[in-house]
Amino acid sequence: MNETVPFFSGAASARRDRPALEARIRQVAASGRFTSGPVTAELEQAIARRTGARHAVAVANGTDALVILLRAAGVGPGDEVIVPAYTFFATASSVLHVGAEPVLVDVLPGSYAMDPRRAEEAITERTKAIMPVHLFSQMADMEVLKDLADRHGLLLLEDSAEGIDMRAGGVHAGLWGSGGVLSFFPTKTLGSLGDAGMLLTDDDRIAARARRLRQHGQDTDGDYLHHEIGYNSRCDELQSAFLLHRLERLSEEIERRAELAALYDRLLAPLAPAVATPWLAPAKTPGNQVYYVYLIECDCRDELVAYLDAHGVGTETYYPRPLTEQPLLAPLPGSRHPVPVAEAAARRAVALPLYPDLTDRQAERVARLVHAFHGVAS
To answer: Which domains does the chain have, with CATH numbers?
Structure first.
């Protein structure tokens, strides 16, 4: 019987690393401190060193990081925030959470990043910020977007949830403007045991307010002096301990992801143009791209997904519809801009399995099945 290939699995790594993980968990248990403790502070310092951020503020998840970033940067009711139409729902919902209005614009083919020209066309007197998203494997064109924000006097914020270790011009994702975020959801390049997130910024004021907002509006956890309405968004010590362990292998795992992507590129190349493999923008400096998701496009996406599923191969449709077609967002004024590139990607794009525990044999099986679906011998 053919081996199933899940879309994501960290089981092999968990088995391999069990002794080290158990040791870290025992240390947390022995400390008696389970949230907002020294292990989380150590994680913040480690992420700050790795990214070059002046401040790294740990929170409960990536969505909270976005909401807190927006509020800490001063975005609120009456403001508009320009975001791409092809991204996860949290990019737009975080804007709504702070009382502002998301304005959805089209993306560029290939990179799926915000189209700077469409973003500029969407600027109004109410625009407060531009918030590009770094999707799948590479950053948006931050030089152009920063120039755009500077020329119009706008905040530049980054939904860099997928951007750990991505850099442009030597600057880490999330640090081109006022701030950015990281998500540590289990499937991410640096994933936790559950939910966790991080806010990145070089702005002392934003960092101070973010730390206040994450703990019910207190400047100091436990002082019971509440200066504003905040959130219960502390990072658990167990998650921080697990992430510190994962951080030790991050470079190695990123290299493995690149190896698997190169293998897919080679095996799927004969299917062009029926299958489009990921396009990466020419890197101005090495090391800019990090494969989080291996996204292909094809005309018969839904049929391919069903075929792979029938043969035991997991996939993920990123994303089945642009944000302009979400029931909550479609009626809003910010959904009025045409987004043909996002609409096409929503019909054609699907992610194949890509994670450090994936074997070459499993990737080869996935590629053979994609060939078989298209009636081509591999």
So the answer is: 11-247 (3.40.640.10), 249-373 (3.90.1150.10)
